[in-house]
Structures are given as C-alpha cells and as structure tokens.
Fold:
Amino acid sequence: MSRDRVEDLKFPGEAYRFLLDALERTRIRYQREGHVSGQELLEGIREHASDLYGPTSAMVFESWGIRDGSDFGFMVFELVERGVLARREEDAPTDFEAKASYRELFEELYFELPEEEDNEKEN
Structure:
C-alpha cells in the first residue's frame, strides 16, 4: 500500500499487511480472483493466523488492538474508503460479526481439551 493510502489508519500497518495476505490466501482457497464474503475472509484470517502465529495468535491480534472479527471488518472498510479494496453494494461491516473474540477462539483451538477427553477425566 502506498504511504498516502495508509496515513491515519486505526490499526498498525502490520495488521493491514496481515489482512491483505489473509485475503489473498482466502481467494486462493475459494479459487476466486475477486470478492469473498466477510465470513469467508474471517475463516481465512483464522487459518492464516494459526499458520503464522499458532497459539500466540490472539496475543498478536491484541498487540495490534484487534479483539474480534468486527475489527477486521472495520479495517476492510477503511481500505475500501482509500481505494485499496473494492466492495459490492450488499457488503456491510456486519458481515464481519463473530460469535466469539479471537482470544476465546484461539484458546478453544489450542488450549481446551475436546469434550470427550474432559468427560473421560471426570470418570
């Protein structure tokens, strides 16, 4: 991204580079050159973070000030406003609403035992 397009962004530049890399990865996964949905991008973000940062993913996001999918949605629409990304008329920030924070998501992914293992330990 050019310098004039990234001035006054809410989050650190590294977060936007990560987002654009995750977007490219998501496009490849879904075999698309253009648009992916907000939910598809959130899944791509989770996968990309897991591959890059593993169990520390939530800490990395928090160091950037990112708590959940709505923060990535905010970033996407910042980049749309600056002409870096395009959107469809039906796209909205609410497309990025997530059921859990990234801390909860990555803790569940990396640190919680599956339910049947929990039940076996109780018996």
